[in-house]
Each structure stands twice: as structure tokens, then as C-alpha cells.
Amino acid sequence: MNMIQCAKQQITELIGKAYAAAAEKGELPEGVALPGSVEIPKDTANGDYAANYALAGAKAMRMPPRKVAEILLANLDLSGSWFDSVEIAGPGFMNFRLGESWYSDVIKTVLREGSDYGRSNIGEGKKLMVEFVSANPTGPMHMGNARGGVLGDALASVLEKTGYDVTREFYVNDAGNQIEKFAVSIEARCLQLLLGEDAVEFPEDGYHGDDIKELAAAFCEKYGREILSMDETERRSMMARFGLERNLPKMKSDLERYGIHYDRWFYESSLHESGYVEESVKLLSDRGYTYEKDGALWLATSRILGDKLRAAGKSEEDIAKLDLKDDVLRRKNGFYTYFAADIAYHRNKFEARGFDKVINVWGADHHGHVARLKGAMDALGLDGEHRLDIVLMQLVKLMRDGEVVRMSKRTGKAISLSDLLDEVPVDAARYFFNSRPESPVEFDLDLAVRQDSENPVYYVQYAHARICSLISAVGVEIPAPDAAALSLLSTAQERELIKQLAALPEELRLAARDYDPSRINKYVTELAARFHRFYTACRIKDAEPELRDARLLLSDATRRVIALSLSVIGVSAPERM
Question: What integer best gives the mean pLDDT of the chain?
Fold first, then answer.
């Protein structure tokens, strides 16, 4: 149950009844729709909720807003509601102040709903896919993949909590140009090992990492000089397969170690082998969106996007400034491009597997690809504009001692996800990387391992452990919520803590709406802060029994919500620290 939305709805109903009563007495005109809304003001000193119905309906009633508010207030009946009082402020705002019954009901709701607290059915079971990381399998995963992994996984959790049927997927680019380059790179290093480094020139556009040298050494150890007599095509195919067979399990194990579990690993090669890429391109051709030029087959991307922009009211001058380009789907040599495979892959998501919506978490360098892919889906009649959403994330900068870090202290190579997890706890990595995707993130390696309140994940986890220790130390059985005197929880610190407990369902709703799971980080950090303030200000163990039990219940509710919140972002809630 969302106690914030329920409180807003109750205010709307109370004002609706007050208007009906006033209209029946002739104090307000009948038949007037009361538009308006209820919000939580930034400053709650004068009330916990502010309603603007009097201002929004004043024009239709031909009365000053404040007069409308006064009449509504005179006809308002708060008996049996969650509110103790209402005051008029400014030109006609109605400020409602919560009563103790709402605070008690929040705690009861948290404890009653348990692990389902915060869960809703906003998504109505719609099928969503979140595709994230999808790192090139030709080398180790980097910091961008580390960040994308957390953002995708946490977003999937948020969407699950709000009622969507979510699938997590990793798209394996095991076909096409980059795999050919991967094989050529391994081949060159193998030949250098067997014939001498000067005998074979390494391709300038090849993969230069030490991981390629390691794969080449392993391949040479297995096959020896027989490599030299192999057919080049067969040799490269073997090398690509050899490399992928070693890289993919490593990627999977690193991601599992990172707490990320996929429902499916989808292989690009399957799209080519099944003829799905060819079929998808043919569908675009049948719809009149392709043409041949210089022996290649092109997608009329500029026409597709131009028509969308014209329909949206853009002028020809504005469209011309965008310098829209067409895209090659099939090269002169008959091979399909990565973009053609990507179109087929997303058609598969919508058409073959029936996802209502697809969300991709991409690096900001893919920005130019967004409109093109959405346009291709529109051209296939799959409504890419509304069914395909892209979350673009900014860069990651690793810091140590105030300096940018690019190389691993352990390996002397560029820092990979595996290197990072050797240096900092998984909980810290997940917590730090789950920040607003549109903002660059500075990951402070020193801060991530500190065990003090400056480290935000430690600060939150310590609050959870502190509550576990408190409950154990008090040594009494926590009473059932209905048996406790929750009305005694009346201090400012207690009520601020309860308000924060009430906010989790709303934060989950907003995180799902905005594709921003970082809201949960901010939420649980504030929840921990409010608990620490409550713990400092309010005696528990040596308080009077009734008050002690009420405060224990509040602490237990807080413990549960901290653990729930951390679980959404894939962070543990330790009982001891």
C-alpha cells in the first residue's frame, strides 16, 4: 500500500464531499468540476499536504479562491480520517496536517506487508525486457559495463516491484566484423609467437590488449605449429570460437560475482543462422524503405526520420540542419551489417517474443543510434517510438588519492570489472554505480573501502546492523502492531522517520516511471539518516515499557525497509558490522 498516495486520495475525497455539502446548501454553485491536485510542500511546517482545489475551481465558481477555500473548510468533516486539522494559506491553498492514526497505520502496513511492502501493480503484468551490458565478447568488461550492469539490474528490480513481468537479457555480439577482427588479432599474435614478432605485422585496427596475447599463447600451446598449415578461413574460425569459449564463461562468472543474473544470453549468430536478419531486411524492402547503391543495400533512414519529424511539426529547414544519413544494411560483399542484425534482434524482441516494451541501457556514445533504431522499428510497424526506450548513461571516472586511475595496481593493465571487484566490495561497487544515468560518475576507490559514515553504503548498512543489535540487546519480545501503543510515537524525530518509511512505495513508483533506480539510493540513505537521528534523540532500552515497545516496533519496521530497499539495488543488509 502506498500510504502517501492513499493520503492524497483521501484529501481529494474529503474535499469532494465538502463541495457536495456546500453545493447542496447553495453556498457553492452545483455541477462544477473541481480540478486540482494534492502535493507534499517543501516546507511542512504549516501542513503535511497542500491541496489547490479552491484555486483551480475558483474561476468556474466565479468566486475568489480564498472564499471557496473558506466555504470548503466550513463543510469539511475530518472525523474518521487520517487528518487532525486543515488551515487555509495564501490565496486559497488548503493545508492538511496528519494525525497519529496515519503514523500508526504506516508502521502497521510495513509490518503487515513484510517483503511485499512497496510492491504495486502499476505495470499490470506487461512484458518488459531490460537489455544491459551486452559487452563485446572480444575482451574484458570495462567500467562502463560495470556501471551499465548495476543500472540495468536495479532498473529491472524496480520494474518488477511495480508489477511488470521483466526479463533480463545480454545480447552477445558473436558474429560480424568485430568477431572477424578478433580472430585476425589472435591469428597475428599466434604467428608472431611461432615465426617471430618481426615476421608478421600486427593489424593496425586489431585488438591490441594483453588478453589477445594470452588467448594466442593458449591457442598455440594447444595446436602448436600445425596452425601454420591450416586453411586461413578454417584457422580464423577456430580462433574466434576458441576465444569466445574462454571469454564468455569469464564474462558470465564476473557478472554472477557482481550479483547480476540474466534470464537469457541471446546470441547474434542465431539471427544470421536462422535467416532472421535476411528476413527482416526483406520486410523493410517490401515496405519500400530500402534501395541499392554501389552494390550495397541501404535503409532510407533519412526519409523514415524526416517523415517522423514532419509529422511532429518540424520545418524542412530544421530537418535539413540535422543532416540525416542513410544506413547500409547489406554490404557489397553480401554480408549484413551490425545495424541490420540489431534491427532483426529488436524485431525478434517485439514480434517473435511479444514484449510490450523493451528498455536498452547504452553508453552515451550510442546516442546517434537511438533515433535510427526507433525509426527502423517504426518502418516495420512495431511502434519503436513508444515501445523502445533507451537509457543513456555517462562515463565513469575512477579516482584514488584525488587522481584519475586508469591502470590496475595488481595487473598493470586497464582496469576491468574483475580488477575492480578484487579491490572493492561488490556492495560498494553496486551502490556507487547506481547513480543518475545521465550524469558522469566519479568512483572514489578509497571511499568505497572506508568503514565510516563518509562511505554511504557503509552508513546505510551500519543502520541496519545497529537495529539488529538493538533488538537483540533489549531482549524483549516485540509485540504485535495492534497491541502496541503506537500513538506514543509523537516526537519530531519519530514522525520524520515514519514519513520516510511511508515514502518507499512512492519512490519505487517514481523510479519505475523515470527509469531512475538511483532514487532508491537517495531514499535509503535518507532513511538511515533519519534512523540515526531518532536513535540519538529517543531512548529505547530504558524507556517506559509501552514507549519502549512502540519504539522497538518502529525500529523493526525501519530495519525491514532498509533491507528491502538495499535488495532492490542488489546490496546486502548485514546483521553485524
Answer: 95
